[in-house]
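Thread: assembly with ligand

MN 10:42: here's the input set. Chains plus the small molecule as SMILES. Want everything predicted jointly, not piecewise.
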Amino acid sequence: MSAHQENINYLKARKGFLNWIVTVDHKRIGLMYLASIIFFFIAGGTYAFLFRMELWSPLQGFMTSDTYNHLFTMHGVIMVFLVVVPGIPGALGNFLLPIQLGAKDLAFPKLNITSLYLYWGGATLALFSLTQGRADSGWTFYAPYSLSQNPAVLWMLTAAFILGFSSILTGLNFIVTIHKMRAPGMTWFRLPLFVWALYATGIMQVFATPVLAITLVLLLVENFLHIGIFDPALGGDPIMMQHFFWFYSHPAVYIIVVPAFGVVSELIATFSRKTIFGYKFIAFSSVAITIIGFLVWGHHMFVAGQSDVAVTIFSFLTFFTAVPSAIKVFNWTTTLYQGSIKLTTPMLYALQFLFNFTIGGLTGIILGILSVDIHLHDTYFVVSHFHYVAMGSTMIAFIGGIYYWWPKMTGKMFNETWGRIGAVLVFIGFNVTFFVQLIMGSQGSPRRYYHYLDQFQIYHQISTVGVVILALGLFTALFNLLISLRTGATAPQNPWGARTLEWTHAATPPVLYNFTETPIVTEGPYDYPVEKV
Amino acid sequence: MNSMETTKTFWLPDQASTFAGRVDWAFDLFLWISTFFFVLVVGLIALFVIKHRRRRPDQMASGQMAHNTMLETTWTVVPLLIVMGLFFIGMRGWWHMRIAPSNSIAIDVVGMKWKWTFNYMQGFSNDTLVVPVHQPVRLRITSTDVIHSFYIPNFRTKVDAVPGRYQALWFEATKTGVFPVLCTQYCGTSHSYMITAVKVVERAEYDTWLSDAASASGGDVAPDAFGATVYSKRGCNACHTVDGSAGIGPTWKGIWDHHVKLADGSTVEVNAAYIKQSVQDPTSQVVEGFPPIMPSYKGILSDREIEAVTAYIQTLK
Ligand SMILES: [Cu+2]
Ligand SMILES: [Cu+2]
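BT 11:07: finished. Tokens for the full assembly:
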């Protein structure tokens, strides 16, 4: 390849559809992930929108209970396995990790495109399942319900299995890259916090996901061979299935939210021009959370039939995950102190994240209180809690991150006014939708209910109105970005005045191999000067 | 059923068991703690955003505080103490829920798609739960198909009904009334219709109800007569005849003490054990010449009912 080609913007370097599909460039892979994830976010959101409309009334509206069960299953599977788990690492992580490290690409570029193919493969199977019947197991696939031989459920299990491998390979690639590909002078404590977050996430992806894969294989085997692993009618143990499942799916909560911690750290530092308060704490606590996160899965099973001793221990350990999260919130808040704060669109998302994550965290603590959890378990309170985390924290940070790095990725500036309008609508819509769910949950309304007690109708109606506002906000945000591709001003190299390598050393958009010469790092990622008086 | 109310206060349903007070106390306590921290965090964010807003595009931060040992220690230790306290409160409440008093009355509960059945020790079953007020009640819960979850919001208690297992749950109702019982583990098409009620009544009313229900279902009648009731009331008559005529299943007339030939070629004697097994696990011993279509009544027919059927079959000579 000629030297000339190396120095041209990665979007223009090699043209044509085929060149995108077979690319090994982490930036293009990141963008393809981004497009796929947005597509599935819209699909998963549409499912939610439809069943939220149905829930306007406790009686049958425009769908049967079987349709409702199918819709919430599709919503859950798509949002978990195709959106929030692969989301930030797949799209933003792929694009940024090498650049933030000062590297040319990930350690294993071909493995990286393989992850994307596996993602597409899994996604295709998930869609294919729609032609095979209606998957209705919920995203949790609890046995023996999921052993019903419903072919759509079987395809769904296969899809989730394949998606798991995509996740494992991405995690592995990131870990090796962070260890081996740092630019000269890029010491561990000069890593941007986003990199630390991806590192912690990678560890969880590599160690937890195989357990999910095994569980799904066992479910498939049992479905086909009836050998009695999880089905009590055949001598199996359904509780064991839940242990396996949550052994993955609790860490998955952190696979989902830790990358968001990373994004938010970047946004808050940049838009307050501040060094992150307690950098090392945030870095290490992400790693610490991953370790404790492996020991608390049983808190999803307080009423499922574990021994009382196990329940007590799981509750005890769960509280330890709360402390690092609380400290992080204090750290981010304190970072704002004495800053030079600008409420740009990305910053509005970062602040929403703090608001929502505080609620998500506090509601998590109350669910850890054993006696109270017995009442709240499997009600809307839990639904609301994890949406405050997965949607209100992770997706919000994700959108904030997309806005923040959009100029870098596309070379275009977006319209700030419309960006802010979108952010505010999303904030209002999200909180209207989910706050009322806390109330109806604590009053005893179970989740996954197609038909509910009359007294809960008002909450369902408020929630449905919230979803409409939320959808409006999300589409405003999306269209604003898409429109900028045509009409946006050309973005300068460092529009926000940030200090990490992708802004200080890489062109906008970056060249094919990110840097014309390897950067030499001499200072930390947030070494902002102090205003002279 | 739809209009059954659970709610009285803003956050929590009306209290109707001895657990409710403790649970709500912990809930309310943490509600206040959360409100405090939430207001603190959001208040500080708002304050900083306003106070430290960027006034000129090139304005830098006015300080770069990266550490403060005092601050960091405080906000590590205080949350740690709070959550440890919460752990103990939760744990004590939970243990209280786990250990049923020895004077509890026992009732078996069976969940199935999509109804709850309550088997009373007096040998009858009911589809709503009737219990006396101020009396500890111990439920032994299982399921015949998939996992369900037995939840009474007003009592603040819940446990999963798992096939192949028995799970214990106890409560003591503190006020009379009718409260909803809901299924909280997703179990398919009619999951959200798997609703019944717990009716809490005064002791005297309970005793009358109990003896009425028991005698209506054979409490005072002879076992064979009760067996005849089971035969017609539990739908055995849909497939079995008692007069020797042909049906979907074998007739019961004259089978007692005789040998029947099974589909696998072996023969067995019709005795109490065989009848019990035929009822609870019909496909394990299929009578020759009949399709294996009899549903399992495991967990549905009580032992007393099975014994009554056995006695009844003995009379059919
Ligand atoms: Cu968890
Ligand atoms: Cu159910």
